[in-house]
Design brief:
By secondary structure, the protein is α+β, with helices and mostly antiparallel strands. It has helices at residues 9-25, 29-36, 40-53, 56-74, 76-80, 82-101, 179-187, 275-283, 317-348, 359-379, 385-405, 436-457, 460-466, 472-491, 493-500, 502-522, 526-554, 560-583, 585-588, 592-626, 639-645, and strands spanning 115-119, 124-129, 145-155, 220-224, 230-234, 242-246, 260-264, 269-272, 292-297. The protein folds into 2 domains: 6-108 and 317-626, Up-down Bundle (Growth Hormone, Chain: A); 115-311, no CATH class.
Length: 668
Amino acid sequence: MKYFNENLITLKCVLFLFFGALGGLLPFLPLHMDVVGLSKDESVIVSVVAPLIALLGPLVAAPLADRLASGGGGNQRSKTGRYLRVMLSLCFILATIFYWLLMLIPPIIRSPPNVTFMCDQQGGFVLQDRCGAERTCYNWGSSKGSVLVKNCIFSCNATTNYSGEVTTAYPDETDTFYESDYEDQLNNDDNSGNEVNPDTLDLSDYSSNRNFTGIVPLPHMCYENDKGESICEVYTEYSQPIDFKIGLTPNLDNATESDFCKYPFADKFHCRITDDVVDNLTNHHTEECHPIVVCQIHDPYNNSHSLLKRSQCGYDNISFWLYLFIRSVADIFPAAAVALLGAAVVIATRETSTGRGDVGKQFAAAALGFGIFAVIIGGAGDGKFLNAMICFTVLMLLAVLILLFDNKMPLSPPEWWWHTRCGLLALPMSSVRKYGLEIISLGVVLFLLGIFWNSIDTFLPWHVVKIPDGEPLLIGLTIAVAAIPAIVYFVYAEKIVDYCGHSNILIYCFVNYIIHHIGLIVTENAKVLLIFEFLEIFSLHLMYVTAVLYFRHLVPRKFTACGQALPVITHFCLGRCIGALLGGLAYSEYPDRDNFNSVHKWFTVAACITAIIYFLAYHFYLKPQCAAAAQVPPDPAPSVVQNMNGNGTYTPLRVYHNGKAKKGHFRY
């Protein structure tokens, strides 16, 4: 007979409040890292390290909870489940405190100085504004780094604020001559030219190519590779940015009266400038002219491996390290709380011999809270961290009050309710099959799903606010839209999982990630992206509840908390760490859109291959290996069974894992 369990109302409220708090905070943390002033590379480091440190939460809390559940012989604390409520309350309070500490970190005020790449026949150098009130210049070490140059032109003079906006006018095609003639001129170049004095540089007209009656000369930038071979890079209007691996020497001119710092290249480097170019430049400028090739440096302070990022003014390592430390510690407590809440739900729902509990119905409340508050913060709160933290704090405090004052929440240890439907004790724990191979396989699958999930989820807010019509509200809407079908799924989760099979649902999650990664590649519209984001969040709900139900069957009852910590460790910590590391490549390299598409293209291929391998491995190996075996009664039969049958004959019970009855024949 079905009935409504009033004792589970407060547990549903705690799940609603906790996951609502997470939904209103976690999706907007990447935007907060931008507000603090972290560079993209620094944000990637935080996103990689934080989940790795968060491992400590479930690794410590879950074994401690299982230990306290034994209660030293069954004391009052373990019988009422108070230990679990207190541990959850501490996790909620500490998470709130540490996330508030992120507000105290001083923002990094960066003042990126103007910088320009230049070279002539004598060599190459970087010209950069002096830093700060001290007007200092950076002292470079011996290491080399990347400098991406574009918009290269011939010019008479240049300053550090050249940005490449001025384009070069090209002559009519009918007046051109063969490029080989120009190459001959380059080869006959006597390399004579004047080195540019940075103190005399001023802004001039970058139009040196307008007056040529023949083929337009192109900047040739030459250097020696590691083998001593001379290589020349030619920049045209169709060229991608050229990546030079160079080292810089300290500023040659220490006079603070100069507005510039001049950093010559440490390696052999020069630019070819023909006589025609020199004549064209000097004949059309009344002032003294120093022929030179000037280039814009692409994203000098944020591009990965950029040599110049160390030299920008206002760079503050202290704020970065503080953010990394506080964020890593703060993430420990939600991770621990998720594992403990999973154990609490499994314990409170009192699964019986039929394999039915109310696990899915409890997590339906969690999905509802996760979706509602994400929309509220994304819309009304505009995704701002202060608004998110106020909401997070209120929800967490309400959850703590419920946990501390509700003594009727059914959280007694698992050993108290491990029973059959008719109330008889089950067979001893030694008769339960060992599911080590299946647990390991499931852990690997959840780890891989975590990689594909977090390669999207961690940096998605950056992508959303960048695309046309993108705004923080869209981030919340993606979570809310996916929560609606997830709630319906959760209500019937146990029946659906039992019918479809745990592994088949996980394979379906891989398929969803294939579709989502393809969607990120082809979609540049915010509203269309909403459809694909629905798949990603819905897959997350499917994965987690399926994992909770799966580990409920596989792990012995005295390790309930440890069993529920396994999906948190593999998916939300390890998978999240590697996913952030690989997904960050889509945002930390140049060019952004091309690299973004390339990274997600490889993720699509990887998800497809993984889904096929898992499908074949499961249906042709794991499924036959892990199929439930026919029940063989223990010899001798337990005394409880002998007493029950009177004459000593054995009547098979519906045992937890082994029997072919409904209880032991789940489709894994």
